[in-house]
Amino acid sequence: MEAKINKILSLNMLSTFIVQGVNFITIPLFSRLLGTTQYGIYSLFASWVSIFTCAIGFSMVSAIGPGMYTFKNEYREFRNSILCCTTLISIVQVVFVVLFRNFIGAIIDFPPVIVCLIILS
To answer: Could you say which of 2, 17, 19, 114 is the most buried, measured as most Cβ atoms within 10 Å of its Cβ?
Structure first.
């Protein structure tokens, strides 16, 4: 059991390093290929995607790991309730953003189509 946990932990750390490494390598490429205006727009887009990503699920999925130990006997019910709650919150927020995309676009200074792409990212 412990060897399996160590393997999962190692793969998780390796995947994090790979994703961060790709990001680290592509930043100079983006800054060379894109002009300052385009790179600024890309950076703002990426920032808004990360903000909306945090807001959409309220990081409820991060409770699944600790819930495995807290709710040993009712873990499946706990996991299902967290996933259903996150899905419902996400659907409500996506509908809200799509309905008010013009207003949100004016606030964050992006066209309404880009606001929809941000929420879908």
So the answer is: 114
User: Could you tell me the two tokens for 118?
Assistant: 């941000």
| Three-state secondary structure string covering 48-108 | HHHHHHHHHHCCHHHHHHHHHHHCCCCHHHHHHHHHHHHHHHHHHHHHHHHHCHHHHHHHH
Would you say the pTM of this structure is higher than 0.70? no
CA 38, chain centre distance (Å): 23
Rounded to 5°, angle at Cα 63 from 78 and 80? 30
Query: What contacts 77, CB < 8 A, 6 or more positions away?
Result: 71
- pLDDT tens column, 4-50: 667 777 777 888 788 777 777 887 887 788 888 888 888 888 888 88
Classify residue 118 by burial, with Cβ atoms within 10 Å: 0-12, 13-18, 19+: buried
Of 16, 85, 87, 97, whose CA–CA distance to 52 is shortest? Answer: 97
The 8-class DSSP code of residue 109 comes to T
